[in-house]
Each structure stands twice: as C-alpha cells, then as structure tokens.
Amino acid sequence: MRMAIMRNIKFKGSLLTLAGRPLRENIKASDFRVINTELAEVHLSDYGNKIKIITSFPSLDTPVCDLQLKEFNKQATHLSSDIIILGISKDLPFAQKRFCDANQIKNVLVLSDYRFSSFGINYGLLIKELNLLARSVIILDKNNFIRYYEIVEELTTQPNYNQALLKIEEVIKIPALYIKEELSNHCRPCEVGGKPLESQEIAKLLVNHKDWQLVEGRKITREFKFKDFIEAKYFLDLVSVVSQEQGHHPAITIIYNKLKITLTTHALGGLSENDFIMAKIIDELEG
Best exposed site among 45, 170, 226, 235 by fewest CB in 10 Å? Predict the structure, then answer.
C-alpha cells in the first residue's frame, strides 16, 4: 500500500499539483473525448493519421493564453496541410467560439475539456486545485506516438514555440513511428466464448504489477491510501473517467482514506489482458 503521488507546476511561484496519467515520449498517446464549439463530442481518433500539435492552456480570459492561441494560429499558416493544431482548455464552448470569431482563429481547432476532464486526466495535465488544464505543447505523429511534449513549469509563462517548431520539422522527416508495445494502452472488447488467462500468463503479467495482489487466481486487487476521504474520492473520480472510456469497470470500495480496487473480467470468469491494462492505467493515475 503506497501513498498516491502527484506532479507539480507553479502559479506565480506557488506549487500546484497535476493529476492524471504522466506523459512520456515515444509511447502511444491515449484517446480522449472533448467538446467542440458546436457542442459535439469529438475524440483524438477523429483526426485520423495527421500529425497533431496539441496545445493546452488554463483559460482564454487570461492574456498569456490569449497570446498562446494567437501564436499557434499564426504559425499554422506556415505548416503543411498534413498537420492539424488542436487547442484545448476547460473554457465553455460558447466562450471559445466567441473568442475564435472575434480573433479570426481559423487555423486551430479549439476544443473544451469542461465536461469530462478526459484530456486532462489522460495526459496528466489536470490542475487539481483549479480544475483547469496546465499549459502545454504536445506533438503526436501520424501513428499517435508522442514525439515531443512541454509542460510549462510556471503557469504564467509562454511555451517554447521555437523548440516545438524545430521538433515539428523532425517529425515531418519521420512522420510515423512503429513501436511494439508490450501491453496496449486501451482495453479490447471481450470475445464471446473467450477463455481467461492461464496461471503462467497471469504470473508473467504480475511481474510488472508488483503492487497488485492475486486473489483466488481470478482477480487482482490493490489498496491505495490517501490523506482523507476527499483525496480518496478525487482519485476514485479519476479512475471512474478512464474506466468508462476503457469500457472496463473495476469493483471499488472506499472507507475514509482507503480505496480498494479489484479487477476481473466477469464475461470470462477470470482474468484477461484487459485487467492488466486497467491496472497499468490506474498505476499511471497514481503517478
């Protein structure tokens, strides 16, 4: 049983905590769901095999965020049509639409994470204290592998535009990585008539999940400890979002500051690879 750990940025020198799954280069980016300015739900997968620049920011009502979006809108005019720029914040879609119309933002697709916090959670950019997104720039190649990211350490400062543009040039030269992942980052639909994992397969997967305990040969469980009930509930909410998106729902019990999570695949009557994928995601949420 370990205490959950979160990452930090600063706002005018004061520490803020980032919740969600940490970013790493050369891993497959997670899908996410956000809302566009027409109030429609959209996903990363909707943007196909284009190279993607994703820039996130706290709010368009601040001067730094205002400049950030305008700068990417300007830079987009020099980029290939094979590159798409997504601007994501937790501003309401109505406010985003007004801003884009007033400032002629036509080269950046502006999206809102207000409803689900899915982008913030899946990319480790949700500011816990503010329920806003950290300032970042992320570059995904055509296969959605993360080729570059910058999380701006001080929330009141701009991203490093020059560094991001240099990296874009590198990605254009090698637009798609092909990296075999040991374990997928997304659960697969269970096949009818499928079989649960054999004991030797379970043992092999458990090696990389040392904090999880095997129960009765058909479940894995882990207990988390937090400062108080509110902290435990916050972590439960993070797990709930990704569980719904993965279509794989754990059994969760909460007793004051302790959260116990149990994973099994009921359709198979035992453990499947999906259980270990979810365990990996939950471990990433812990930090």
Answer: 45
For residues 220 and 263, the answer to whether their CB atoms sit within 8 Å is: yes
Beta-strand relationship, 51-56 and 146-151: unpaired
- Catalytic residue numbers read 65
Residues with Cβ within 8 Å of 201's Cβ and at least 6 positions away in sequence, in order, are none
Which helix (H) or strand (E) segment holds residue 202: the answer is helix 199-206
- List b or e across 26-56, with b for residues whose CB sees 16 or more CB atoms inside 10 angstroms: eebbbbbbbbbbeeeebebeebeebbbbbbb
Whether the predicted pLDDT of 67 surpasses 90 = yes
Spatial separation of the C-alpha atoms in residues 235 and 227, rounded to whole Å: 11
Angstrom CA distances, 231 to 30, 67, 201, 205, stand at: 25, 35, 34, 29
The pLDDT assigned to 188 comes to 82
Residue 221 pairs in a beta bridge with 213, 262
Q: Residue 184 — very low, low, confident or very high, per pLDDT cuts 50/70/90? A: confident
Q: Which amino acid is at 20?
A: G
Token pair 């020099």 in the structure block, residue: 78
Q: Which two tokens stand for residue 74?
A: 């300007």
**Mean pLDDT, the chain, as a whole number?**
93
Contact 242, 284 (CB under 8 A): no
E-state strands within the chain: 2-3, 7-11, 14-19, 33-35, 41-43, 51-56, 83-89, 109-112, 126-127, 132-133, 136-140, 146-151, 213-215, 219-225, 251-255, 258-263
For residue 103, the model assigns a pLDDT of 97
**Under 8 Å CB-to-CB from 255, ≥6 apart: which residues?**
none
Average pLDDT over residues 202-223: 95
Given a cut of 70, is residue 193 above it in pLDDT? no
Q: What is the pTM of this model?
A: 0.93
